[in-house]
Write a structure and sequence with these properties.
alpha/beta; TIM Barrel; 13 helices; 31% helix; 9% strand; disordered N terminus
Length: 440
């Protein structure tokens, strides 16, 4: 797992007094002192491992999909990890309660618990015209990156687990490769039902987890999924990740790109390494993510930068966003996108205590803004959208990967219509639908 230099704890009496720096471009939030960083030294990238679930050829055989286990009684550590008795659980919560521990080579006490989740399908259908994709794939449930603001914590509640365990109880979906092969054969359509053109349905990988979190090095579920996609022709696929581990799979991404449409969104919320370590404790450093964008572009893979979520005061200053957009341009990114923070109740339970500890002056304003609704005020969202649009124009970056009306197989202008941040009611409804679709 990639780490950075350990931050020194502040003395009991608080940090030493510093001369307040002049804020050149104030936040849209009430002003607080600008946080400064010290960049840690570069670190090597840990190697990945191949995917699982298929034979050498990558094609599933009749015996490659393991039967789902009978679920008579929970055993071992499964007994106490859920909020309800196992006998009362149903659906995904029941499957999770009976998921056996997954073997791991990691021995550090800080490692998460891994479990093997016996799912019946990998593709999750999104039946809504309000979202820019028809299918999602999340190879894991939970994410070790432990981002303080992560909206996807609510997905653990579907399994009767607390959202606070999202980053320390990771569920690995079994037989990911063979199950996807079956799903593509029987569920996926190469022609969208909502379009008159011959454009394929879009598959978004990593909507409620990071497909390249540290678990991927051991379990290879994402690699197994991509290997299956490389065997097909005419797919439309995107990957969203905070990890530079994606460069491990450039070989298979190139094979997919030769026969289908594929692009990668790398999320970078700030260039300030120390702040990134506070907000995203176990994610790779920002410079490593931008290096991944460069490597992907040099390999001919379409790639861009997501600056979402943009956090009031912490990451929203125009000079910070300008530096991020410029760095994205310099790395070869083809698009740059950013939207204001959305903070669900399950996320607030983790984020508000973090603010109270690290940025106590911000807590009251965050509570005022987000306690009644997960959305920032409309005026703020509009100003952020305008700010990001100005930066795109300044650095000649696209707003989204492809134009909606031209998505076709192997076309350079592919057509996934990523919806820009707007302030109207329909967009808020779309966000609600997106969270429902993303959870699978």
């Amino acid at each position: 797992m990639l780490t950075s230099a350990t931050l020194r704890s502040e003395p009991a009496g608080g940090p030493p007094r510093r001369r307040r720096a002049k804020i050149l471009t104030p936040s849209l939030f009430p002003a607080v002192p600008h946080q400064r960083d010290i960049e840690p030294a570069a670190q090597p990238v840990a190697p990945g491992i191949p995917g699982h679930g298929c034979g050498v050829s990558g094609r599933p055989t009749a015996s490659s999909i393991e039967p789902l286990p009978a679920l008579p009684h929970p055993t071992g550590s499964t007994q106490n990890r859920h909020r309800k008795p196992a006998a009362e659980l149903v659906g995904i919560a029941r499957l999770a309660a009976f998921s056996p521990p997954a073997p791991t080579k990691r021995s550090a006490d800080s490692r998460p618990e891994y479990f093997l989740l016996p799912v019946r399908s990998i593709l999750n259908r999104c039946d809504s015209e309000r979202v820019p994709f028809e299918w999602t794939i999340n190879p894991y449930r939970g994410c070790e990156f432990a981002c303080r603001y992560c909206y996807a914590r609510y997905t653990h509640e579907y399994m009767e687990l607390d959202g606070g365990e999202f980053d320390n109880k990771i569920f690995v979906k079994q037989n990911a490769g063979p199950l996807l092969a079956r799903d593509l054969d029987h569920r996926y359509s190469f022609r969208r039902s909502t379009s008159d053109s011959a454009s394929p349905e879009h598959i978004a990988i990593g909507t409620a987890t990071d497909p390249y979190q540290p678990a991927e090095r051991e379990f290879g579920a994402t690699r197994a999924i991509l290997e299956q996609m490389a065997l097909r022709e005419g797919l439309s696929v995107s990957i969203t990740t905070k990890s530079n581990q994606v460069v491990r799979d450039i070989d298979v991404l190139k094979r997919i790109a030769a026969r289908s449409t594929v692009f990668v969104n790398i999320t970078v919320t700030t260039l300030r390494a120390r702040l990134a370590r506070l907000l995203e404790p176990r994610a790779p450093r920002p410079d490593l993510r931008l290096a991944a964008v460069k490597a992907l572009r040099e390999a001919g893979i379409a790639a861009g930068v997501f600056a979402s979520p943009i956090l009031p005061v912490l990451t929203d200053r125009e000079d910070d966003l300008d530096a991020l957009a410029r760095a994205a341009r310099d790395a070869g990114a083809q698009w740059f996108f950013g939207g204001a923070l959305f903070l669900m109740p399950s996320s607030q339970k983790q984020f508000f205590p973090f603010l109270e500890e690290r940025f106590p002056k911000l807590l009251k304003q965050y509570r005022d803004w987000f306690a009644r609704s997960g959305y920032a005020p409309e005026k703020y969202r509009c100003e952020i959208a305008e700010r990001v649009a100005r930066l795109r124009a300044k650095y000649n970056l696209g707003a989204k990967p492809f134009a909606a009306e031209t998505r076709v197989y192997n076309a350079p202008q592919l057509a996934l219509a990523l919806r820009e941040e707007t302030c109207d009611k329909p967009t808020l409804i779309a966000s609600e639908t997106l969270r429902s679709c993303a959870a699978g």
